[in-house]
Write a structure and sequence with these properties.
This is Glutaredoxin-like domain. It comes from Actinokineospora alba. InterPro entries: Glutaredoxin-like, Thioredoxin-like_sf. The chain has helices spanning 7-23, 36-42, 63-70, and strands at residues 48-51, 54-58. It has one domain. It starts with 6 loop residues before the first helix and ends with a helix. The protein has a two-stranded antiparallel ribbon with strand order 1-2. Helices cover 45% and strands 13% of the residues. The chain contains three helices and two strands; from the N terminus they run ααββα. Helix 1 (7-23) packs across helix 3. It has 71 residues and is an alpha+beta fold. Strand 1 (48-51) and strand 2 (54-58) form a beta hairpin.
Length: 71
């Protein structure tokens, strides 16, 4: 979960992109400001990382933990 003009989101997206490329895992983003329900759920904590639809972490990517969750 991201939002436009969010530096932390840009950093997290770059990290997730690199990790997922290394592992051959597909990923995507959703802008929390595009949907009132997403904004209500995640708006104060972006970026938020979801794995299999479940919240995995927020504000920064914990690389070892994310790699473990994706393998």
């Amino acid at each position: 979960m991201t939002r436009q003009d969010c530096h932390a989101c840009d950093v997290a997206k770059a990290d997730v992109e690199r990790i997922c490329a290394d592992l051959g895992v597909e990923w995507d983003t959703a802008d929390v400001d595009s949907d009132p329900e997403l904004r209500a759920e995640y708006g104060d904590r972006v970026p938020v990382i979801l794995v299999d639809g479940e919240e995995h972490g927020y504000w920064k990517v914990e690389e070892p933990r994310l790699r473990a969750a994706l393998t």
